[in-house]
Every structure is written in structure tokens, then in C-alpha cells.
Amino acid sequence: MELLRSNPANLRVSSFKVESSSKKSPDCDSNSRSQGLQFRKLSKKDLSRILRTEAAIKAIEKKANSSKYKNLWPKAVLEALSDAIKQNRWESALKIFELLCQQHWYEPRSQTYAKLLVMLGKCKQPNQASMLFEAMLCDGLQPTVDVYTALVGAYAFNGLLDKAFSIVEDMKSVNNCKPDAFTYSILIKYCIKQHHFDMIGLILGEMSHLEIECSTVIYNILIDGYGKAKCFELMENSLTDMIRSGKCFPDIFTFNSVVGAYGGCRRINEMEKWFDEFQLMGLKPDIMTYNILIRSYGKSGLYQKMGSVMEFMKKRFFSPTSVTYNIVIEIFGKAGNIEKMDEMFLKMKHHGLKPNSITYSSLVSAYSKAGLLGKVDSIFRQVENSDVILDTPFFNCIINAYGNAGDVERMMELLMAMEGCGCKPDNVTFATIIQACRAQGMIDIAQNLESNMTHAKITSGGS
């Protein structure tokens, strides 16, 4: 592949309960400190907007616990519901929706149910989605294609493919609710994701029988899914079918999916071959394509080629993004080349690009691996004095770093600080701390954390 040559072509809702799995973190110095940190990270405008949204959701949610509020201002209730859905706060959203249903002016709308079903799917609450659908039927509202498809997605996203297929069968018997290309695209996506490749032919056959044509989106789902599953022959066959259809043509998403599939598996020759092939088809690489090349060369230890791509980007006026630098920083960090990693970090800031939690996670992981705990402390101080929005993966990295150093006390401080920064500990967080506690002989603390972890699973999974 010649990078430097020119481009060739140019229910009733009240009938189901919402159990909250969230817990208030205890008051402690580290928690207060982290809350202060969170406020420093936000501009006054952003903070004001967030506080207004938060206050609105809580105010409406509080009224949902009372039966006397039946004529509230529509705008306030609807905006609070919309904000809760956007933030995937499913418990709050369902409470607000229940309040909405009690309003004298309320008229059931299928679009509202569809949005709630999509959110419940994302929040891994298929049982709540099922009950909401039943509530819709009880309200006498006829489901639309969008509502059915949202329910299919909620089931498929959570691995309940049998239920998803059952809903599609139900759709066929309902007037004006026949499954469409988008419905089938969801089934295809999650069948591939869960490696049910035998189902793909059946789905495509059914689409053909119903005279639903494969769109570019469906072909791209097939190509991307097969590529990520390392089924390269099926990926290329789908690409061939796409081109032969005469109606759908490869686009930049196709380009990046194929190149990324081979590059991610360190099959550099095939990656370079398809990089050239797609350009011959008239497709031009974008910044994501170049980032894929950089990551692929870096993972394969081909640092010279990685540098060549960055030089090529510079000549073609493709400015490296934060993603580009994050990839390079991660690659050098994993390779143990701390000096080069630090150099790229400084270059990133010199070019006016803002490091984010991904950047700092890579730095922390590399310093921890190299035994440079002092630099880990330095990174955390930098983050404290910046407006970087922290996330759970960052905390997991820094907790792991102190765990490797045997500093359990610091790990526990960070655990308490997480919720103050709006980050929820996950299985990785607890597993890391439990392992460190056991290594330090703190068996009682480890067992207590394991007990809390099990309880959290039961609470969140039982809904």
C-alpha cells in the first residue's frame, strides 16, 4: 500500500414497581473532595444547565409519589421526562411517566412509549420493557411499527432473541405493523453479535419473501458484524453481494469496517490491499480510516509505518484528533515506551488538543505497569485541577494502580470518591479492590465487598 501516492478516484403504569438500585454514598472527606472536583470541572453555564435539569427531574419525581398532582404544567412534566430518558435514568423516567399518565390533559402517545422502550433496552431492563408494553395495551393504545421495533430491540440487546423473534411474528398479524427493514436490521445485528450466524440466512430469506430489500445499512451491519466476529469469508461475501445488488454501494462505513476488521487482527497485508481497493472504487479515507491504520500498525509493532501514516496525514492536511493521540499514547504505553508516550502526550497538548479520561487512563496504566507510582499521583493531581470529565474506566485504572502498589487505603478513598464524580463502581472496580484486600490479608473487608457486590447484582438484575 502506497500511502504517499495520489488518491486514484477522486399495563397500567402504576401496576409495576420501580426498585432503585442506587445507594447514597456516606458522607466523608474524600466524597466531599470529589464533589468539589466535579464542580470545578464544569463551566458556570454547563453547571447551571445541569443543576436546572437535575432539579427539574427531582421536583417532578417527588410529585410522582403523591396522588394529588393531577394538573401540572405540561411543559415541566414533559421536559423532565425527556431529560430522564436522554440520561438513561430509567427509574426516574418511569416514575415521571406514571405521573404523566395521571394528568387530566394527558393523551397516550405511541411515540412516548417507543422512547421509553428504547431507553429500557439500553438500561438492560427487558422485564420493565415488557410490562410497559402491556401497560400500553391496557391503555387501549394500538402499538405502531416503531413501538414493536423498540421492544424487539430491547429484547435483542439483552440477549433475549427468542422473545425478539416472537414479537416480529406478532407484528406480521397486526394491520399496518408489518416488520420493516429497520426491524430486521436489529435482528441481524444482534444475531451476529451473539454469534447466531445460522439465523442470518433465515432472516434474509424472510425479508426476500416479504419483498423487503437489503439496504446499504443492512449490508454494512453484516460486513461490520462478520468482520468483528473474524468471519472474514462471510464479510467479503456480504461485500460482494452488496456490490452485485446494483442498488447498494460501499461507503466510508464499509471502507472502515473492512480495513478495521483485518487491521484489528494484525492481518496487515489484507488491510493494505483493501485500503487500496476501496480507493479504486472512488472512496476517500477519512480521519477514522487513518486512525484505524495507526492503531493496526501500532498493535503489530510496526511503529515506522505508524509514523508514516501520521506524516502522510500532515501532508494531506488531516489534523490528528484527540482520538489519534489517544491511540498513539495507548500503543506506546502498552509497549512500555514511557519516554515516547510522554513525548506524544506533550505534543497533544502543544497542538491544543484536550486530554480526556481515555488519555489519562492510558497514562495511569502505563505508569503503573512501569512501577512509577509517583507519576500516577501526578496525573491524579493534574486531573483534579482540570475540567476533565472523569468516568468509571479511569477510576478503575487508578484504583488498579494503587492496588498493584498495595495501597488499599487509597483504593478505598477513590471508591468513596467515585459517586461524588458521578461515576458508578462496576464489577471491575470491586474485583480489583477485593483482589488487593485479599493480597494484603484483609479477608473481612474482601468478604464484605463481595457481599455488597452480590446484593447489587440481585437488586439490579431482579427488575
UniProtKB/TrEMBL annotation:
<feature type="region of interest" description="Disordered">
    <location>
        <begin position="15"/>
        <end position="35"/>
    </location>
</feature>
<comment type="similarity">
    <text>Belongs to the PPR family. P subfamily.</text>
</comment>
<feature type="repeat" description="PPR">
    <location>
        <begin position="251"/>
        <end position="285"/>
    </location>
</feature>
<dbReference type="InterPro" id="IPR011990">
    <property type="entry name" value="TPR-like_helical_dom_sf"/>
</dbReference>
<dbReference type="GO" id="GO:0003729">
    <property type="term" value="F:mRNA binding"/>
</dbReference>
<feature type="repeat" description="PPR">
    <location>
        <begin position="356"/>
        <end position="390"/>
    </location>
</feature>
<dbReference type="Pfam" id="PF13041">
    <property type="entry name" value="PPR_2"/>
</dbReference>
<feature type="repeat" description="PPR">
    <location>
        <begin position="391"/>
        <end position="425"/>
    </location>
</feature>
<protein>
    <submittedName>
        <fullName>Pentatricopeptide repeat-containing protein At3g53170-like isoform X1</fullName>
    </submittedName>
</protein>
<keyword id="KW-0677">Repeat</keyword>
<dbReference type="Pfam" id="PF01535">
    <property type="entry name" value="PPR"/>
</dbReference>
<feature type="repeat" description="PPR">
    <location>
        <begin position="321"/>
        <end position="355"/>
    </location>
</feature>
<feature type="repeat" description="PPR">
    <location>
        <begin position="286"/>
        <end position="320"/>
    </location>
</feature>
<dbReference type="InterPro" id="IPR002885">
    <property type="entry name" value="PPR_rpt"/>
</dbReference>
<feature type="repeat" description="PPR">
    <location>
        <begin position="109"/>
        <end position="143"/>
    </location>
</feature>
<dbReference type="InterPro" id="IPR044179">
    <property type="entry name" value="PPR5-like"/>
</dbReference>
